[in-house]
Amino acid sequence: MKQELLLKRNILVQAIQQKLDGQLECTVPNGGLNLWCKILRKVDANELLEKAIQRGIVFVPGGVYGSTNHYVRFSYAQPNRDSLKKGISIFADVLGGCQ
């Protein structure tokens, strides 16, 4: 299971690098189930979440955990490998449409 989580983490990080290069700054964990990223421009994470849900994806805004609205948390534990790539592609589109 640990190897599968590391593989999924790497797939998620690679997808972010490909689709969101220069837009997010991520802290890659050595283990765990989640990836924290900072959005490098001003955006309302709650609005971003609403639009993401409409497109079929979910992430956790950092404000839920007391962080600023510029942070988001992505889980890589549950989604399958292909869903991670697709989810980041959708997230990139949604982020591009937010002011």
UniProtKB/TrEMBL annotation:
Keyword set includes Cell membrane: no
Per UniProt, what is one Pfam family of this protein?
Aminotran_1_2
| Matches recorded under InterPro entries | Aminotransferase_I/II_large (IPR004839), Class-I_PLP-dep_aminotransf (IPR050859), PyrdxlP-dep_Trfase (IPR015424), PyrdxlP-dep_Trfase_small (IPR015422)
UniProt entry tagged with the keyword Transferase: yes
User: What keywords are annotated for this sequence in UniProt?
Assistant: Aminotransferase, Pyridoxal phosphate, Transferase
Cofactor (UniProt): pyridoxal 5'-phosphate
**GO molecular function term, any single one:** transaminase activity
Q: Known Gene3D superfamilies for this protein?
A: Aspartate Aminotransferase, domain 1
| Ranges of residues in domain Aminotransferase class I/classII large | 1-88
- The domain of life is Bacteria
UniProt-recorded name of the protein: Aminotransferase class I/II-fold pyridoxal phosphate-dependent enzyme
Q: Which organism's genome codes for this protein?
A: Paenibacillus chartarius
